[in-house]
Amino acid sequence: MDAATVVALVAIVVSAVVSVTVPRMTFRFTLQQDAARWLRKQRTRLYVDLLTEAQAELKWLEYALAGESVREAMAPHFHDLRLPPLERAQLAARTNLYGSKPVNRLFGRLSAEGSHAVFNLDRLEPDMLQMRTRVRVGEIVDELEAAVRRELGADHIELEASPAPGDGDRDNA
């Protein structure tokens, strides 16, 4: 076998390996991207539902912890927007599946803090309990929102084009 034949055979083998390997690697990479995109979409939907439920829980707690006269005045305008028990359990299950550990922990803390306040309403001084619960639940909701924004990268998305340096000077002239 002469050198030209060996070079031709090596070139054929290399091109055969490349023609099989590159599409396979590309397909695997595309599958990984698609799976990541799907998970991000699931997580985004979950986090919107989670934050909606957290806000509904916060409003309900304010109503539940208010004094009798305040509740009577609020009653015509108050709507309990919390999820029914089955849907709440489904939300918790989706959180366990798709949510991160920090978000899952914060959502659990929110539920626990609200339940603790409502169960101890008769045993503790109402004003102290209201103040403490509002502060703690407000902090948890703030932490939850911050964790969701951090995970989804919401603060890194630029919605409007930044003005070029010096553009603001022309508007003032």
Question: How does the SSE layout of this entry go?
Answer:
Layout: H1 3-65, H2 68-74, H3 85-98, H4 101-119, H5 126-152, H6 167-172
Helix pairs in contact: 1-3, 1-4, 1-5, 4-5
Describe this structure in words.
By secondary structure, this protein is mostly helical. It has one domain. It has six helices and no strands. Helix 1 runs antiparallel to helix 3 and helix 1 runs antiparallel to helix 5. The longest helix is centred in the N-terminal third of the chain and has 63 residues. It is elongated. The model has no long low-confidence stretch (mean pLDDT 85).
**Helical residue percent band:** over 70%
Oligomeric state as shown: single chain
> What is the number of domains?
1
Unreliable stretches = none
- Secondary-structure element order, N to C: HHHHHH
Notable features of this structure?
single chain, 173 residues, mainly alpha
Task: Write a concise synopsis of the structure shown.
With 173 residues, the chain is mostly helical.
